[in-house]
Amino acid sequence: MTQATDIRPVPGHGRGSTSDHLRTALRLAAGGLPVLPLRRGKVPFGNCPDCKNSGCGDRPNMKAAGPCRCPAPCHGWAAATTDPAVLSSPAWTAAWRRAVAIAYHPGGAALTVVDLDDADAIAWARTALPATRTVPTTRGEHWIYRGAMSSRNAVRPGVDIKSTMAYARYLGPGAGTLTVLPNTVRALALKEPPTVRPAPRSISVPARSGGGECPHRTPVFLERGLAMAEQRITQATSAVHATVYGAFLAVLSTHGRCGCLTDAHVARLFAAAQAKGETLRHCTAAWSNARTTLGL
Fold first, then answer.
1. Can you give the pTM of this predicted structure?
2. Which of 29, 69, 142, 150 could lock 135 by a disulfide, CB 3.0 to 4.6 Å apart?
3. Do 85 and 11 form a contact (C-beta atoms < 8 A)?
């Protein structure tokens, strides 16, 4: 991790979990990782009575830690700190005594966590994202990149982005070398257009050499090919983006040069892909890449 690449959890030598959590937190903080305790439910401690409803003068919606100097670990992710005096203070020690886990503010250490919540999300990441440091979680994996960005949940099925103004649970040092945050991840946080069928558009493909009537212009042959492509996409359980591209490529390799495909056919393929979670932008890119591969 940035300024924390070699951080390792340090086993506590005290009797209770307070010592374990605090020792690890101090070690992480010394490496530049802003940390905070998590209470039961694995969520941050709520604001104290004096800090509720911005009574302390903190900025609205915790967009920053604000001017509050509350000695308790208030304000969720914004409470994360690298200050050993704060971490070991009486108020924080009391919180560590009740804590069940440690969290950190990725953006505060110039990091981004791609939180993959299930096997399908992990399979997608392995085909779409560059390898980086990986930390196993209860249900999936955290992929950690060097660089900060805006946080956003549900950028894809089972995929959240945690960086600025967010916290991630610390689950160990993980394995692998940190990679610079790729534009692929940054693009996931951009607002996507609504999932709709693509608007009718002209599909420009070269005419079949030799002219004459297209040999594929039979309803049965074309329908079978489209149905097979739709089924391939619909039944995908992992690597959906790669499956969509392969299905588009298969259809275009057979019908891309003869003029069989109409806007309605393309809309069917796009709709099948969007039903699996692909965005209109991804569908358009996959179609364009398939045409480029085939020289259309």
1. 0.59
2. 142
3. no
Q: Burial letters for 235-249: b for 16+ Cβ neighbours within 10 Å, e otherwise?
A: ebeebbbbbbbbbbb
Per-residue CA distances from 117 to 108, 159, 208, 274 (Å)? 23, 6, 47, 20
68-74 long-range contacts, Cβ below 8 Å, gap at least 24?
A: 72/45, 72/48, 73/36, 73/37, 73/44, 73/45, 74/45, 74/46, 74/47, 74/48
For residue range 49-105, what is the model confidence (pLDDT) as tens digits? 877 766 676 654 444 444 567 888 988 888 899 999 999 999 999 999 999 999 999
Amino acid letter for position 240? V
Report the relative pairing of strands 179-180 and 141-146 from DSSP bridges: parallel
β-partners of residue 163 are: 165
Q: How far is CA 273 from CA 117, 130, 161, 208, 288, in A?
A: 21, 23, 23, 28, 15
Residues 6+ apart with CB under 8 A from 244: 233, 236, 273, 276, 278, 282, 283, 286
* HSE value, Cβ hemisphere, 13 Å, CA-based, for 63: 3
